[in-house]
Amino acid sequence: MTESDVDSSCIVCGDRGRVFLEREDLCLVRSPACGLEWQDPMPTEEELDALYDATYFERWGSVDDPSENPVRTMKRITYGVVLDAIRQHVTGGALLDVGCALGYLVEAALDRDFDALGLDRNTHAVRWAAERLGERVSAGELDATAFPGRRFDAVTLTDVLEHVPDPGELLARCRERLTASGVLALLLPNAGSATRRLFGNHWPHYVAEHLYHFRPDNLSRYLGQHGFEVLEARTGFRKAFTGQYLGTYAARVGSFVPPGIDRLGALPIRIPTGEMLVIARRRA
Questions:
Q1: Which CATH architecture has domain 45-282?
Q2: Max Cα–Cα distance, the chain, nearest Å
Q3: On the CB side of 24, how many CA atoms lie within 13 Å of its CA?
Q4: In this structure, are residues 142 and 174 in contact, taking their beta carbons and an 8 Å threshold?
Q5: I need a labelling partner for 2 at 20 to 30 A (CA). Which of 18, 70, 113, 221 fits?
């Protein structure tokens, strides 16, 4: 693909993207003006459905017995940090986890006395989550049919915004569901991170299911355009991982596998892999 073939414009600044990565399964472009990166062309709805089939979570070993699952352990460590950050801005109350997957954040939020609910479009994931959480989790999109009439003191988008074809529409729906002083928490890849600079075009976040790649500056601008004010941004956020999980992920996406990473086994450690945590408040 050449620059003249790019037919999409940046959702933040309106600039036309320029190709910077092209391989068999992925083409990424970047706005010269604001630095936002996105796929061009975007996957079709059918291609996205194929990505998120029944095996999507099984690939990571995420649907084993929850009491013995190391993925659940590492996820709950990460989500605990996210929830503690939220508690710096709201004292508690109702929380909605959009893109709840297997429900691990909902579990962690309940442990911290939030009235937590979860929503995910992946019916297979919701079925597994409902075995533990019952009607607290629901399958579907964030629309009028999802937990009708409910408003929330906090909405979380962890590993979600980079996956959706229309991030602005999702942000608008989140804003509609927040209380007047409610906060939105986003955990997502940081295209301005040291990890991104280290790996270059081999950054592990450059995968088919990640449609957009934000930096802190263009994300703050985009949130402002959709009625939010950034309260806090942790640009070097450290997620909890196991060596086993990192090895599996790297092998799947064709990324570099650090020598000896498998020796960590199921031991969770917090390491920087190029994510950021952003807390924003709904503007009136």
A1: 3-Layer(aba) Sandwich (3.40)
A2: 53
A3: 2
A4: yes
A5: 221
pLDDT attached to residue 59:
60
CA 168 – CA 254 distance, rounded (Å): 30
CA triple 149-48-101, angle to 5 deg: 50
Cα–Cα distance measured from residue 15 to residue 34, given in angstroms and rounded to the nearest whole number? 8
Amino acid at the residue 235 = T
Each residue's pLDDT tens digit, 248-272: 666 665 666 666 666 666 778 888 8
Domain residue ranges of the chain, discontinuous segments joined by +: 1-42, 45-282
Structure tokens that stand for 221 in this block: 């601008």
The first and second tokens of residue 82, run together, are 């996210």
Peptide bond preceding 41 in cis form (omega within 30 of 0): yes
Q: CA 114, CA 112: separation in Å to the nearest integer?
A: 6
- Structure tokens, 197: 């600079």
Q: What is the DSSP letter of 44?
A: P
pTM for the predicted model, two decimal places: 0.91
Q: SS3 of 265, please?
A: coil
Strand order in the sheet with 137-139: 137-139, 114-120, 93-98, 152-158, 178-189, 268-282, 228-242
The total number of residues written for the chain in this structure: 284
SS3 content of the chain, % helix, strand, coil (to 5): 35, 30, 35
Return the bridge partners of 117, or none: 96
188's tokens = 């997502």
Summarize pLDDT for 35-83 with one digit per residue, the tens.
Answer: 999 999 999 999 988 888 767 776 655 555 555 577 888 899 999 999 9
Helix 167-177 vs helix 216-225: crossing angle, to nearest 10:
60
